[in-house]
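Repro:
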Amino acid sequence: MAKGNLDKMALVSICIPAYNCQKYVAETLNCLCAQTYNNIEIIVANDGSTDETEAMVKSVEDKRITLITIENGGAAKARNAALSKAKGDYIIFFDADDHIEPGFIAQQIKKTDGKKNVVVLALWGRFYNNDLSTFKLNDTPVNEMTFPDWIKFYWYHCNPMTNPGRTIIPTELVKKTGPWNEELSLNDDLDFYTRVFLNTEKIIFNHDAIFYYRSGVSGLSGKKDDSAYKSFYNSILYAINNVLTRYQHDPLLLKSCANVWQSFIYEVYPFQKKYRQMAQAEIDKLTKPDFKFHTSGYTKYMVDALGWKTAKRIKLTLDKLF
């Protein structure tokens, strides 16, 4: 499709929360401005940054960029602030340090086929720091799923992560879903996209578009204090409770929810006893999980010989020493 024809198509609003991201935000904005799909607006919510984030955003001269500055309140609040200014037919929530190739949005729009009751997810993978050569694509073998299918596959295997930038959502669906939960910090995407998927007819995987997720950058996901774990726990609680309001008699779905709680327990042990106990209480309401503690290398031998709890304690001690 010619670039001129693309310009007359649906408006896509790209909502970006930006907090102290001076190092990468200009690069991210440039990759968005270079899209072959021109009919976009880019709304950057500067979340009270204390570095040169605002200056770096302003350094990218493109009339499609709107910069708003708000008092620091977290990514969810910033996303909602950007969303409140959005005029598009479709929404993409994009982080300030991620990357896409020029044809990404055109391929995402094409895959929606004009439907307002579907969500399209691009393929995705991680790259580290500023080196795209480290990129590794995740395997996505299917073309589409219903939400129960999503739960029974991704939640069952404890891989419920949905990167905001790989997802294009009809604005009508976002309105039906409601805003991001501003009480949450860590893992807020699980709560939001669970509500989105509950309201969609199907989830479509776009094998013609690839989303590059930057890892190895210090951010909220690396902060594991009590408030972060509270958010982590609540995000799972809210997501599962939303699911159970509609699907509560499917044994595999209940097993998938129990596995997510078990994965949380593995993650926080031996810390956060209160949240571990609360998670176990939620498991007891569901069914017995069958998700095993992830092991590799020498850890596997320790788990086999000593059990996962002792093995994790030893590994944490060794990590501190080395």
